[in-house]
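hey can u run this one w/ zinc ion bound, need the structure tokens asap thx
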Amino acid sequence: MELFLWIYFIVVSGIFGVVIGSFLNVVIYRLPAGRTVVKGHSMCMTCGHNLAAKDLIPIISWASLKGKCRYCGAPIASRYTKIESFTGVCFLIASVGVFKYASPAIVNPGYNFYTFFMLYFITYVLCISSAVSAMMIYYDTGKGFTGTAIWSGIFCLLAYTLPHLFMKTIDPSNTGINFVDLCKDLGFAVLRLAAVIVITFVLFMIFRKPYSKNDLCLDLSVCVIPLYGFYFMFANRWIEYGIFAAVYAVMRAFLKSGKYDKYAGIITVCTLQLLSSAHIIYMYIK
Ligand SMILES: [Zn+2]
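ok here u go:
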């Protein structure tokens, strides 16, 4: 039963990621154009035909139509499907990190530790989504949106505070973490974030090109992700951040604009997340 719940949670997380990825395609396309993401029909880029619900099923529609528009037969870029799959994989890997703690919230919702981890997981994957859109927009337009950096920051702040406030509200005697500890934690988190940004900035200046506000927005959007403690727990938080900073900064500084540049941030995050999830599974087995 427990195993079934774990598998269910991981599979549903992956599907959830694919659906969010589909929404991110809209964000990535419309945000730089200054259009709203909540209203309006999706349409074929070639013939302008409004797309029906059956045309908008992530991955499946694209595959069943063999990558062509149902109405005019023009090829549809595989990129949309790639972003959907990629976001799905990110969510799936993230769910592996917390399946044991978050999945019981599905059958046992309410004020408990499981819901605590579920909240944590949700804010984490939202932060990933924000980073994916920031990265793709940066790649498409060379621009970094302050908006994506702010959203990433908000999701991260929520992850830090929401689960703890939640536990505090339901159980005032819960002394697991208090306000002072929370602020201290946050302070150190901001310091670690600043350290990564400075390292990236220095390497970028030496090996690549001037570091602009756009780069800063992208780096902020991506680098708040490792602030989620549960997902990176190899050793000391500073050591974890050091590893992240080294890998991320080197990738950003040396991958010249091109095929892989756009993926630098998320590849770094995913690689570390994979290692971390593998480590967590190893701990369970042991
Ligand atoms: Zn068409």
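Residues 2-30 form the longest helix (29 residues). anyway lmk if its weird
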